[in-house]
Specification:
Elements: H1 3-30, H2 35-38, H3 52-64, H4 87-119, H5 127-146, H6 154-159, H7 163-175, H8 177-194, H9 196-213
Helix pairs in contact: 1-4, 1-5, 4-5, 5-9, 7-8
Length: about 220
């Protein structure tokens, strides 16, 4: 991967994780929790969103290890579920907002690729084509990973709003809240790398479906 293509991937990645977090904040603000807005997190300024580990270290390690894809995260926007008007239903919308945003960005990127490459005849080595191809891949990865039911991910928070799963999540967090706060994400990252072959297989299936569905 040449330097310019890697730079394009990084730009696509940073833009995607920022929009992911902003989506959480906007939906929370819509339902009455303006915490993210007050703290200046509804901004496109990358400096207020970049996490040294999730936005720099993890993507760099994946790149150097030739993993074949980039994954990471920005600093989570603060959400106070108790301020949301609509209770648990509102919180569900907040939790799915990020994954939904990534999925929409992937679809929009696929449509742009189809129009520009097949109808406008722009070659595949065009930097714009490379950017939207990167944007589609990055957002598919982010949507899949964030949907996983692991602590620190949106899938965990979403499932935690349903009956028996909610009680299980609550007991896990209450049993050792300091452990979950400090190491929950670390545990999830370890599990991710252990199950990376399976996750990579899922991503390959989704990516292949996208390519075939949009005729790219």
């Amino acid at each position: 991967m040449s330097g310019i293509i890697f730079l394009i991937f990084i730009v696509a990645f940073i833009l995607s994780v920022i929009l992911h977090e902003i989506a959480h904040g906007y939906v929370a603000n819509h339902f009455g929790d303006d915490t993210a807005r007050i703290m200046g997190r509804l901004s496109l300024n990358p400096l207020v969103h970049i996490d040294p580990v999730g936005s720099v270290l993890v993507p760099l390690m994946l790149y150097l290890s030739s993993a074949g894809f980039l994954f990471g995260w920005a600093k989570p926007v603060p959400v106070n579920p108790f301020r949301l008007k609509g209770g648990v239903v509102a919180y569900r919308w907040v939790t799915v907002a990020g994954v939904a945003t990534n999925f929409v960005l992937a679809v929009v990127s696929a449509l742009i690729l189809k129009i520009t490459s097949q109808y406008l005849g722009i070659s595949g080595n065009n930097l714009g084509i490379i950017f939207f191809s990167s944007l589609m891949q990055v957002n598919l990865v982010l949507a899949i990973f964030n949907a996983l039911p692991l602590p620190g991910f949106d899938g965990w928070n979403f499932l935690g709003t349903f009956g028996p799963v909610s009680r299980l999540v609550s007991r896990t967090q209450l049993a050792n809240p300091l452990f979950m706060a400090r190491y929950g994400l670390v545990v999830s990252l370890v599990l991710l790398f252990l199950f990376m072959p399976l996750i990579s297989y899922i991503f390959a299936l989704v990516y292949t479906f996208f390519i075939k569905f949009f005729g790219l």
